[in-house]
């Protein structure tokens, strides 16, 4: 299965992250003007919709500019022409109060009269009208000098329009609110885009982490669904490939383990027959008159035959233990009794090999959940190792040690050269492996402290 070393740029996380960074850099110079544009468009839409809904609505800016243009066009115009021009405005805005005041202060108001005005204007009346018109909330007032200049001395003309006829465009506060909302929405869009980007990455990484920490029934991680063809997607593909390789390796391991166990079992049984035959012939040879050298050779062969027999026995036991076919039935028993009985059985051999036993098994009883046969097998293996590898120390000790806060321990001690020392009789370590497997099945543990001055083996729950 081949993988791309690097994903394509357009589908990589780098490209998407680059777009987010670019959006962040363009947020101020682009988004803020865009917000102003959106606000202006919204105001334009609102104004247009209101104008279409009510044709009588007018625009204050347009009315002001148009009124001043009309006043400018009436420069040096006669009173009749002024009246005629203002009548046109009256037809266009029948709901408005339209009038003009000549240079002498006389009011000329176009009918119908909607609002009462002074007949003769004084300076106070003019100032009061200007003051009231600018602050009147009910009427929008526009006043312009006829001729658009006071130097023309033609007076002034005015128009009053009820404010209800003006387009309800957005005021400054509403425009600011609309701008703020637009800016907030754009910012929320950018933040949401960033959140979705990192949430997707986090979700995929957590899925990968969960697949690593929660294996399936076979003890191996489960394959995951591969997502986009980016960096994480490549990691997911590599993870699935690794799972496939592990599963294939596990299958091969199981097959090889079955083959090894079958081979060990067959070899052990096949070796038993020739060893029995050789043993019987060695026993026959022992009855013959042999030279001293021949007797020594025969004794050495018999020792090696026993070692080989023990090795085959260990192989069979190890094979059964690793296959889960070794029958162990733990139950609460006094292990001091078992140790004393085993030590009594080994005592003659220890004396023959020159070992000085030091047995200190005081106490009435020490109850552990053990299988008696299996525990005796553990003791026999440990005793045999001391006889074979540590008899130069001429010592073997058996004792029970109790420490505060710790369970009682069975200690087997020798004064040999240690487990790291070279020995001509050193084997493959199957004996200790079998001991540890047997103890594990009985919920016990073996701790070994070995130095050049001796080895301490502690058995405890």
In short, what is this structure?
With 461 residues, the protein is an alpha+beta fold. The protein is 56% helix and 13% strand.
Give descriptors for this structure.
461 residues, alpha+beta, 5-stranded mixed beta sheet, 4-stranded antiparallel beta sheet, 11 strands, 56% helix
How is the topology of this model organized?
Layout (H helix, E strand, L loop, with lengths): L12 H13 L1 H27 L6 H14 L5 H14 L4 E5 L5 E3 L13 H13 L3 E7 L10 E7 L9 H42 L17 H56 L5 H32 L7 E4 H18 L3 E5 L6 E4 L1 H18 L5 E7 L7 E6 L15 H12 L3 E7 L2 E7 L1
> How many separate helices?
11
Order of helices and strands: HHHHEEHEEHHHEHEEHEEHEE
Radius of gyration: 55 Å
Proportion of residues in extended strands = 5-15%
Total number of β-strand segments?
11
* Average of per-residue pLDDT values: 75
The end-to-end span amounts to: 49 Å
**Class per helix and strand makeup:** alpha+beta
Shape: rod-shaped
Give helix % range: 55-70%
Major sheet summary line: 5 strands, mixed
Low-confidence stretches: none
Strand order of the largest sheet: 6-8-9-11-10
């Amino acid at each position: 299965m081949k993988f791309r070393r690097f994903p394509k740029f357009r589908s990589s996380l780098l490209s998407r992250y680059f777009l987010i960074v670019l959006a962040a850099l363009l947020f101020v110079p682009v988004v803020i003007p865009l917000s102003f544009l959106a606000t202006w468009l919204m105001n334009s839409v609102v104004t247009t919709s209101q104008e279409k809904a009510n044709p009588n609505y007018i625009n204050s800016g347009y009315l002001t500019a148009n009124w001043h243009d009309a006043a400018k066009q009436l420069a040096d115009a006669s009173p009749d022409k002024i009246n005629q021009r203002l009548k046109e405005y009256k037809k266009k805005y029948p709901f408005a109060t339209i009038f003009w005041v000549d240079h002498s202060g006389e009011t000329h108001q176009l009918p119908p009269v909607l609002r009462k005005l002074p007949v003769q204007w004084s300076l106070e009346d003019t100032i009061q009208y200007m003051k009231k018109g600018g602050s009147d909330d009910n009427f929008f007032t526009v006043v312009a000098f006829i001729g658009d200049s006071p130097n023309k001395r033609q007076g002034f003309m005015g128009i009053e329009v009820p404010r209800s006829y003006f387009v309800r465009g957005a005021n400054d506060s509403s425009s600011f609110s609309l701008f703020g909302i637009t800016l907030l929405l754009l910012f929320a869009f950018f933040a949401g885009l960033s959140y979705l980007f990192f949430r997707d990455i986090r979700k995929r990484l957590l899925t990968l982490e969960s697949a690593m920490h929660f294996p399936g029934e076979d003890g191996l991680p489960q394959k995951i669904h591969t997502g986009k063809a980016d960096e994480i997607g490549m990691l997911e593909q590599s993870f699935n490939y690794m799972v496939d390789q592990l599963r294939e390796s596990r299958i091969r391991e199981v097959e090889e383990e079955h083959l090894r166990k079958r081979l060990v079992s067959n070899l052990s049984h096949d070796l038993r027959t020739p060893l029995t035959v050789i043993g019987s012939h060695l026993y026959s040879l022992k009855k013959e008159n042999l030279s001293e050298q021949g007797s020594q050779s025969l004794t050495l062969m018999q020792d090696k035959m026993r070692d080989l027999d023990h090795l085959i026995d260990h192989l069979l036991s190890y094979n059964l233990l690793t296959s889960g076919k070794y029958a162990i039935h733990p139950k609460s028993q006094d292990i001091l009794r078992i140790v004393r009985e085993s030590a009594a059985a080994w005592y003659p051999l220890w004396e023959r090999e020159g070992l000085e036993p030091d047995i200190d098994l005081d106490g009435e009883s020490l109850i552990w959940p053990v299988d008696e046969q299996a525990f005796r097998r553990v003791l026999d293996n440990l005793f045999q190792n001391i006889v074979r590898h540590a008899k130069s120390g001429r010592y073997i000790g058996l004792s029970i040690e109790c420490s505060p806060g710790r369970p009682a321990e069975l200690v087997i001690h020798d004064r040999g050269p240690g487990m790291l020392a070279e020995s001509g009789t050193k084997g493959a370590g199957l004996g200790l492996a079998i001991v540890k497997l047997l103890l594990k099945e009985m919920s016990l543990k073996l701790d070994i402290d070995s130095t050049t001055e001796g080895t301490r083996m502690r058995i405890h729950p």
